[in-house]
Each structure stands twice: as C-alpha cells, then as structure tokens.
C-alpha cells in the first residue's frame, strides 16, 4: 500500500523541534563545560566533527563511553548518550544505537532533549522496519509537542507504522480525527486522501 506522506516527511522540526544539530540540553555548569571541551577535541567527535565514516564514529563513541565511565553522574550524561546513539545509528549499529538512546532517556534529559532522543529512536525504528516500535515511539513524543500543527503532523506520521503494525482500524480512526479536527487544512486534506485510498483497497479486497 503506497501512502503519500510528503507532508509528513517534512518532520516536525518546523513546529516542534529545532534542527538535531542544536545541542539541546547542553550543559552550563563549568565542570560540565570543561568535559564538553574534552569531548569536542576527540578524533571524529560526533558532537562537532560529524562524519559518515563508521570506523571513526565507533572510535568517537568509544571515547565518549570512556569519559562517562570515568566520571560521576552529571546533567551532561543524557546529552552525551544522545549523540552516542545518533553516531551509532549512522554507523549502521541500530541495536547499539537504540540501547544508548534508551540510556539517554533514563538520564533525566530536558523535555527538548527528550523529544530529540525519541525522534532519533523513531527514525532508527523506521530504517530497521520496526513498525510497532516506531509507532510507540512517535506516540511517546506527542505529550512533548506543544504546537497543535506540530502535533497533527506527528499524528499523521503515525499512520504508516500503524498500518504496517497491523492496526488498520486504529489508523483509520486517527485519520478520521485528523480529517475532521486537524489545525492545518493541508493535514485535513491529506488525511481525507489516505482514507479514500484505504477504503479503495478495502473494497478491492472484498471483490
């Protein structure tokens, strides 16, 4: 089933979250700032010197892991673990990436950083075809999205993983709510198009 999600592909950054390169939750404490400077000097450091080379990313993550292991707990932990997860995901190590992102969620991140962590997890689940997990992660993002338009866009993005996870009825109900109540006309129109597509495929299957 081809679902046209061009609108949703714009992500929710425009209405809910700034670009992922922005250091959400970055430290202000002097000791933590010193730690961050040490991190930023690392070879292939994922915080500043972004790279697509898997080996450099693995080295950088190893350096960050050593830093965390040798330090007492700090507000910086969630921020570092988030970037470790992002780097591991870009190195093709999805399982390890998700584990680090889970650790970041458990390290008391700010709401803005929590939203970034969940978004990264959702993207990895999408790439790994983990439809159910992607849907649940997107659902967890909803309470953190303040903009009505951003929330509608996020909910519209849930439709594909819901269908792939086999919850067609719930997906249809969500589309109906978006068609009737979404803040953006573009979301309402797109939801109606998806409803029509789903109804067509349902009718075709009954013939």
UniProtKB/TrEMBL annotation:
Q: What is this protein called?
A: Uncharacterized protein
Q: Which organism is it from?
A: marine sediment metagenome
